[in-house]
Specification:
Blueprint (H helix, E strand, L loop, with lengths): L1 H8 L28 E10 L3 E11 L5 E11 L3 E15 L6 E14 L7 E14 L4 E12 L5 E12 L4 E10 L5 E11 L3 E10 L12 E8 L6
Antiparallel strand pairs: 1-2, 1-12, 2-3, 3-4, 4-5, 5-6, 6-7, 7-8, 8-9, 9-10, 10-11, 11-12
Amino acid sequence: MWIRLNSMLLLAVLLAPMLTWAARPFMTDDARMTTAGSCQLETWSRRDANRTEHWALPACNPTGRLEITAGGAALRDASMGHSMDAVLQVKTLFKTMAPNGWGTGLALGQLRHRPHTDLDFARGQTYAYVPVSVSFMDDRWVSHTNLGWARDRATGRDQTTWGMGLELQINGRWMWIGESFGNDRQKPFWQTGLRYQVLPGLLQVDATLGAPWGGPQFQRSDQHWLSLGLRWTPEKFP
């Protein structure tokens, strides 16, 4: 069983760059931030039949009021070859979520994409979104909703982005997650999987399966993806 699970986790994925940088493995962001005065690291790999991505996104909250995320990815596409992405995002909260309460905030960011044949980051997107999180049953259930905007740098076209996610605490170490997300210009996607606390409060790993809505969801498809991630969240840093 563990051999099969590890083999599955080592596969990784992506469909297209999404514009919210959430607690792994969500694409839908939460209304929470890194611990004040500390940093965290989220790193993951994603793979479908034609594309592989390896991401690293460190984030710090130096003052307790503003979380700064800066990182990027190395990408390989079967038809387009190698490329790179860079992300810079800031997030703040207007209301902090407490158990059985809710929270909300605002995130602003920019994604730059550079093919290896190009010398600048001309392609990419500028984006903003509002995350809202609601806690139920003393945080055993937590829902997340995003509504946002993104502008493509190359074309100048705007789009509306959205996401809806749910976390269910199974026990002290295991959590089920599920979500749907997308924009107003393409078919939405779903994603579901498990998150495991290797060291509670410090180190977690996760694995997910995702695909577009409306497809053959349990059949092999080049639009399905698998993802493996790791998240390190120390209480204090350094």
